[in-house]
Amino acid sequence: MVRLAPVSSKKLIHILEKMGFEEIRRKGSHRFFYHSQTQITTVVPDHGAEDIGIGLLRKILRDIDITPQEFEQWK
């Protein structure tokens, strides 16, 4: 079992883009991403240097339908 660690929003956004997600819009400090082939959407808060906590990271991983193990492979 992989133990998740907090990750910066910049790194998470980079990983999502590598996976094929595109930023479709922004509202304040939140960036909305869409994957055209799977039609999956998710939202990533972009609060500068602040890391995304483990709970929110797990929710984003559930949104995009990947396991923590698969996420670690994309890092």
Report on the architecture of this protein.
With 75 residues, the chain is an alpha+beta fold. The chain has one domain (7-74): Metal Transport, Frataxin, Chain A. Helix content is 36%, strand content 29%. It has three helices and five strands; from the N terminus they run βαββββαα. The strands form two sheets. A three-stranded antiparallel sheet has the order 2-3-4, with helices on one face. Strands 1-5 form a two-stranded antiparallel ribbon. The longest helix has 10 residues, at 9-18. The mean pLDDT is 94.
Total count of helical runs of at least 4 residues: 3
Q: Could you estimate the helical fraction of the residues in percent? A: 25-40%
Most strands sheet: 3 strands, antiparallel
Tally the structural domains: 1
CATH superfamily: Hypothetical protein
Mean pLDDT over the residues: 94
Q: Which sequence of strands runs across the widest sheet?
A: 2-3-4
The best one-word shape is globular
Highest CATH level, the class: Alpha Beta
Q: Could you say what the CATH architecture is?
A: 2-Layer Sandwich
From N to C, what is the helix and strand string? EHEEEEHH
The low-confidence runs, each spanning 5 or more residues with pLDDT under 50, are none
Tell me the number of strands: 5
Distance between the termini: 16 Å
- The CATH topology label is Metal Transport, Frataxin, Chain A
